[in-house]
Specification:
The chain has twelve helices and two strands. By secondary structure, it is mostly helical. Helix 8 runs antiparallel to helix 12 and helix 9 packs across helix 12. The termini are far apart.
Length: 260
């Protein structure tokens, strides 16, 4: 039986979500240069998605010693299963990898520039705070704003908001047109695009299917029947979709400027 609160949330964001599906950024990617530009910006969203995911795991399960039972076992199951799939899925050869590492591999094959994102990872590995890293490292402006929103969401320490943003604000609604375009590029550049095509198809299969159902259930569990929580969740998702549109706008402008 469909949850009435979930239906209301989905209804309230439907127009904004459709803007993402219909966004011109997809059609603007006509060659490898356009795809590289897309990947070099989108990779930051792929990365901070993992931080949002782990923040949920930290809030909903026990990740410290000694272990004690935390929260609802059903919710623990939901988040732990999603983490396992996102953090240790399989690549095109069946080798275990995270979705972020798979994306980096796809970028390397396409000869996109991975140095900025890997520089961010190196800085964080040395103890640099995310706030300082976002201020000091040369990262595209729209990607910085996108990640700032994500880490502000995490800093809220409200699992129901994090879950809603994770579920509805971070699903890439990939249109069929974009998938067809990637297939066309693969025909032209079979040794440059096949890992990215695998990533997209795997993303649709896992994130858009099984994980989406788990994430929906997690949001329902965390918001319950609390009207205030559902309202907070809805407003946060609207903001998440707007910053995603802003990121897509920036990528589209960059690609079309280069073409012009």
């Amino acid at each position: 039986m469909e949850n009435i609160h979930l239906q209301q949330l989905e209804s309230s964001i439907s127009i904004t979500r459709q803007k993402l599906v219909d966004h011109p950024v997809y059609a603007s990617i006509q060659d490898l240069d356009g795809l590289r530009c897309f990947m070099e910006n989108h990779v930051y969203a792929v990365w901070d998605f993992m931080s949002l995911l782990k923040a949920l795991q930290i809030n909903l399960t026990c990740v410290s010693l000694p272990w004690v039972p935390v929260g609802n076992p059903a919710t623990r199951f939901l988040i732990n299963e999603i983490v396992a799939g996102e953090e240790s899925d399989v690549d095109e050869n069946g080798v275990r990898t995270s979705h972020f590492e798979l994306y980096i591999k796809a970028m390397e094959q396409a000869e996109a520039n991975t140095e900025p994102i890997l520089g961010l990872i190196r800085a964080l590995n040395t103890g640099t705070s995310i706030a300082y890293a976002l201020d000091s490292i040369d990262i595209p402006g729209a990607a910085k704003k996108f990640m700032s929103f994500t880490f502000d969401t995490i800093a809220s320490a409200k699992p129901h908001i994090m879950a809603a943003v994770f579920t509805f604000g971070r699903e890439d609604l990939i249109p069929d047109m974009f998938i067809s375009l990637i297939k066309e590029l693969k025909i032209q550049f079979p040794d440059k695009v096949d890992i990215f095509q695998y990533y997209i198809e795997r993303h649709i299969e896992v994130d858009g299917g099984h994980h989406a159902a788990l994430a929906h259930q997690m949001t329902i569990e965390l918001c319950g029947t609390d009207e205030a929580k559902w309202q907070e969740a809805t407003e946060a998702v609207k903001q998440a979709l707007e910053v995603r549109i802003a990121l897509w706008d920036a990528i589209h402008q960059h690609i079309t400027a280069v073409v012009a």
